[in-house]
């Protein structure tokens, strides 16, 4: 499922129609002065297809579809924060121009009711009405100038949350109104959609973004917002966001906010340029993401590999857990990554990974931390014994 950041998508097409014409980047329904207080994920939401980072293949295919006026029904799926919603909104703006989006695009997402009634009534009504006047000139606000695309677009965001009955009802509607409507279905998991629906769409998988693609936007935001961050901290941020651009921007904004000094209640407002901010370090990033810091993980690995005494291994881990507030689940993830880098016999690696997977499963299922920490030490030490044999 998508995370909470998406709640901002609700009114996007309508607002763009109002603001896009003025060339504003803002997509939320706020006065322009409020742009400063917008979350960065909205402030820096790509306005055009060219602004979307990564996914070059998908973007060039989409562009070709539009240029030849042969847009099929689309299915965009992939993990959260990879730009699915942004891409389709930018595409819609490219096709119709910002001012025509309101008439030509119907966007429904998980926050709207999308039960069978809506599919039957709202979608059907929208799909079945033809556009009477061709849209002249079209592409204001960055559009392509081919406003006369003879079809409307229905965007069903977070479609994996739609009821089965609604998905079924959609099949026939999609076929019946293909002459004047295109559907774009967006989901995190394609397997939650009905196979019949999938077969009617051209599928595009949005894979987690590459580190270089995340870096492009992160660097831009750092520069535009004047974020005081060390180079190595940016590296850590990009790596830890694991392909999720939304996460990267949210963490960056949180760190930036915490590095800004508080203003006394009646003190006059300091001009933005004069505010002295603390430098954001790698530790700040790790704390904000709540990932175990690399030093702690390295210490745990060293202890586990080199200490034969199980009790003292357990003591070290427990002390670190308490001192740094680490959760066992996070330790397991980081440990699996570290152990995976070691060059050991295949059977040792298999023993470690399958053991860690079991422990992770038990922790997620409610297993107690104390006993499972013991199991963790056991699994790693057993592997070491196998290795040294
Ligand atoms: N490829 C990208 N290029 C530029 N910005 C991006 C990209 N992907 C995500 N973002 C940033 O992250 C925010 C969220 O992206 P978006 O809403 O498109 O994600 P999504 O794929 O629809 O995620 P979800 O599955 O959670 O709905 C955007 O506002 C934008 O700031
Ligand atoms: Mg989305």
What this model shows, in words?
With 389 residues, the protein is of the alpha/beta class. The protein folds into three domains: 202 residues, Rossmann fold, CATH 3.40.50; 69 residues, Orthogonal Bundle (Helicase, Ruva Protein, domain 3), CATH 1.10.8.60; 95 residues, Zinc Finger, Delta Prime, domain 3. It has 17 helices and five strands. The protein is globular. Bound molecules: adenosine-5'-triphosphate and magnesium ion. The site of magnesium ion has 6 residues, from helix 4.
Provide a concise account of the structure shown.
With 389 residues, the chain is an alpha/beta fold. It has helices spanning 12-19, 40-43, 56-67, 84-96, 101-104, 116-128, 164-176, 195-199, 211-225, 231-240, 245-259, 282-289, 294-306, 310-324, 328-340, 346-364, 369-388; strands spanning 74-77, 105-108, 152-156, 181-187, 202-205. It is globular.
Question: Topology of this protein?
Answer:
Layout: H1 12-19, H2 40-43, H3 56-67, E1 74-77, H4 84-96, H5 101-104, E2 105-108, H6 116-128, E3 152-156, H7 164-176, E4 181-187, H8 195-199, E5 202-205, H9 211-225, H10 231-240, H11 245-259, H12 282-289, H13 294-306, H14 310-324, H15 328-340, H16 346-364, H17 369-388
Parallel strand pairs: 1-4, 1-5, 2-3, 3-4
Helix pairs in contact: 6-7, 9-10, 9-11, 10-12, 11-12, 13-14, 13-15, 14-17, 15-16, 16-17
The structure holds adenosine-5'-triphosphate and magnesium ion.
Magnesium ion binds next to α4.
GO molecular function, one term: DNA binding
Family: Belongs to the activator 1 small subunits family.
Protein name: Replication factor C subunit 3
